[in-house]
Amino acid sequence: MVNRDAPALDDPVGQSLGGHHAHLARRLGRAAAYLPGVATFCTVSAGADAAEWADLAALLGPGQLADMFSCPATPPPGWEPVFSLEGRQMIWSGTPGSGQAPTETAADVVELGAESVTEMLDLAARTRPGPFWPRTHELGTYLGIRDSGTLVAMAGERLRPPGWTEISAVCTAAEARGRGCAARLVGALVARITARGERPFLHVAEANTGAIALYERLGFTTRERVTFRGFRTPRDGL
Fold first, then answer.
1. Which of 39, 40, 48, 105 is the most buried (most CB within 10 A)?
2. In 178-210, which positions are buried (b, 16+ CB within 10 angstroms) versus exposed (e)?
3. How distant is the alpha carbon of residue 50 from its chain centre?
4. How far does Cα 159 stand from its chain's mean position?
5. Is the pTM of this model over 0.85?
6. How far, CA to CA in Å, does 229 sit from each of 41, 42, 166, 219?
7. Is the dihedral of CA 120, 215, 219, 230 positive or negative?
8. Lowest-confidence segment of 2-16, 154-168, 172-186 by average pLDDT
9. Cβ pair 201, 165 in contact under 8 A
10. Residue pLDDT, tens place only, 12-68
């Protein structure tokens, strides 16, 4: 059953680009996208007309990826489908101190910044948690766990629609799995997000049953099923 108690989550990319992440946005008309190197996500209104799609094509450039995330709008002919992935949007329904997610950051969790980008990119390339680029860390706080100095797990904040913060890039290197790293990182982020009066949410591929089970144990429930879609803009620029 779709939960409609949080309308800002119906368009998390657009709501983020129009608010907390406005400084990371590029725009043309009503079309918007993140700056290159930050994220590939872009958005148009749910009822976008031909002119709005033309604005998005001009904003991105000919033959470029239009990562529409969960936007349901369908582009006009000439936009080449690139991918379609079934997933779900989950929201944290727990409360601090409920036992579902830690209320304090574990001692081995460290904050990651610009100095850790090379390591973060390497870990993301090996574990494939989803899109991660050189400037993705600018979207919010990213946390990690190191083993003998080597980054073996991370998670961070991505989309920021009003009142909400998305937890993303949750990943653990193969050699560190089974140690509860993901649970500690997600718990630490939940604690930080709720401490500033916001609610955590996340997105996960429907096929990733292990991650879904973990998130449910940590107090997340499914708000709705979504389809992540990407298209290539017309190569002739029209």
1. 39
2. eeebbbbbbbbbbbbbbeeebebbbbbeeeeee
3. 27
4. 6
5. yes
6. 10, 11, 18, 27
7. positive
8. 2-16
9. yes
10. 999 999 999 999 999 999 999 999 999 999 999 988 999 999 999 999 999 999 999
